[in-house]
Structures are given as structure tokens and as C-alpha cells.
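Same chain as my last thread, 168 residues:
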Amino acid sequence: MMILKTKNLYLREYQNEDLPSLHVIFSDAETMKYYPAPFSIEKTRKWIETNQNRYIQDGYGLWSVCLKDTNEVIGDCGITKQQVDGKFEAEIGYHINKKYWGKGYATEAATSCKEFGFNQLGLNKLICIIDPQNKQSIRVAEKIGFLFEKEAFVFNKLHNIYSITKDQ
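reply #2:
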């Protein structure tokens, strides 16, 4: 099911057939540098299942990012519920295959998800949870209007929380 369209991309729900393309991303040490470890094939499969369940439970989750021209899955982007300081927040997350870094695809996909969150889901605030060393991810968040809000322990580690409200 297609969720969003942008100039160069479309975002759709994960399909089980996305496993090989997503595993290339999640098993790459450089791409997963700010995670505890690259994903095994089983962990990638579980990631897909978790998000497929989120579609049912929450009405949204992370979606496959596909190039319009080729239909190739080049990453994921979407909105997930995360707990920060004891409160549930809606987070925009993104991962792009490193061979497509620097082309603006993460920014394009995240912008679309931000608009979806505010305009379709009626959310009033969105966050990004980012490792303080992840300069590329910080740059994407700032490009789409997110501002540094605070530091918080999330996923057993200190992260920067960037946020934006609908009114900003």
C-alpha cells in the first residue's frame, strides 16, 4: 500500500519481499554505526514484522522508501511511537542505503513524513532521537525544521532529542 509520494520517491508499507534490500542497509556497519550493532538477517526480519504490526496498532510505522524511477527500495522512513522521559512521543526515523547518501533522499522522505504526521495524523509535535555524534542525521532533522530540545536517555544511551511542533 502506497502511503506518500514525493518528487523522486514513494513510501509504502513494508512487504516481506523487502527483506534483501533492507538487510543490505541494516547489516552495513557504517550505516548502523550509531546502533549497538548491525542487524542479522533475523533481526531485519523482526524489524519488518514489528513495523507491519505498528501499521495495525498505531496506523503508521516505518515505511519502505522507493525510487519512483526504478521502484528500488533504498531505505526506510516513517513515524513510530517512542518513549522519552516516561512519555510517548511520535518520532520520525530514517535509514537510507549508503550508496544514495548525499542526494537529499532522507530529507525528502522525512519532510513528507513530517507533513503526513501533522496533516493526516493530526499530531501536534514530532521528534527525532539522534545520537549526538550522528552529524548526518542531525543535518537532516535541522533541514526539515527540527530544533534541539534536550538530551535524554533512550535505548539505554544518551541521545539528543530534536523536535518540531505543528505551529513552528
